[in-house]
Write a structure and sequence with these properties.
The protein is mainly alpha-helical. About 80% of the residues lie in helices and about 0% in strands.
Length: about 290
């Protein structure tokens, strides 16, 4: 079933994105800086996707769509990731993560006004459950106002990225779009990295962690997200993406011995409830669209 496949793609994307903080822990411990990590992440991903594009004999996007994809990478991804990484210098990681996960609400609002998406009780209920779950999953210890504002701005930029991507994905494949987005972000972060002094991995373990970021935290999640976005729409994709903090918390508990607090498990339950609610609604929508026998 097509819509179930779209839900599966977004779930894969969220789970893969959830590994980013884990791999990030290892590359920073190996002496890397943010700009170099992001430069390697996107430039190598772009090279890999270019090979896939050529093997599939797909052409590079052109015209207005190309411009929108460049904007998604050079402005959307760069802006969101830079603000996020800077925000954690001024506020706790938990508070930044919590504020970043306001983006499903922003996407919901923008979808109503820009894409004229219909409001129904299922989406409203799922949104509330997802927001409560995200709030319980992370641990907001506070911080400076500037950090909070940066995190909120990052959430808004990512919301616009998703809305723009909804239209773009009607004209290009996930491989075409990902190639341009990665390349655009890679160029910007390359300029920033070499301007400020690049710090590459100092050991084999650092390079392995970097490879994990490239494959598991970038290529797989971005391609699956864009493909799933085309099938189930921006609001559903944004809400289902709240699975990401659950994956991060579970991996951190497993690998780093971080405590899995009861309140975090309750938060995860709220998020899973939102996912189940949306999944049932999407499957019901698909079955109702099938002709009778």
């Amino acid at each position: 079933m097509k819509r179930l496949f779209g839900i599966f793609l977004i779930a894969i994307s969220a789970a893969s994105f959830g590994t980013l903080a884990i791999f990030g822990h290892y590359v920073y411990a190996d002496g890397m800086d943010t700009f170099t990590v992001l430069f390697l992440r996107f430039s190598i991903s772009a090279s890999f996707m270019t090979i896939i594009l050529l093997l599939r004999k797909e052409h590079f996007p052109r015209g207005k769509i190309l411009g929108q994809l460049i904007g998604m990478g050079a402005l959307g991804y760069v802006g969101q990731s830079f603000l996020y990484m800077t925000a954690i210098k001024y506020a706790s990681a938990g508070l930044v993560a919590l504020l970043l996960y306001l983006y499903p609400m922003f996407v919901f609002i923008l979808s109503i006004f820009i894409l004229h998406e219909k409001v129904n009780w299922v989406k409203v209920t799922a949104l509330i459950l997802a927001l409560i779950g995200s709030a319980l999953t992370v641990d907001p210890n506070g911080g400076q106002l500037i950090g909070a504002l940066m995190a909120i701005t990052a959430a808004l930029i990512y919301s616009i990225y998703i809305i723009v991507g909804t239209n773009v994905m009607k004209h290009v494949s996930a491989v075409q779009s990902s190639t341009v987005i990665f390349a655009s972000a890679g160029v910007v972060f390359g300029l920033l990295a070499f301007t400020n002094g690049a710090h590459f991995p100092a050991s084999n373990s650092g390079w392995l962690a970097m490879l994990g970021i490239i494959v598991l935290s970038t290529i797989i999640p971005v391609v699956t997200f864009l493909a799933g976005l085309e099938i189930i729409g921006p609001t559903n994709a944004a809400m289902l993406s709240t699975l990401e903090p659950i994956v991060t918390v579970l991996l951190a508990a497993w690998l780093f011995g971080e405590k899995l607090l009861p309140i975090v498990m309750v938060g995860g339950g709220f998020i899973l409830a939102a996912v189940i609610l949306l999944t049932r609604a999407e499957l019901g929508k698909e079955s109702n669209s099938q002709p009778g026998v």
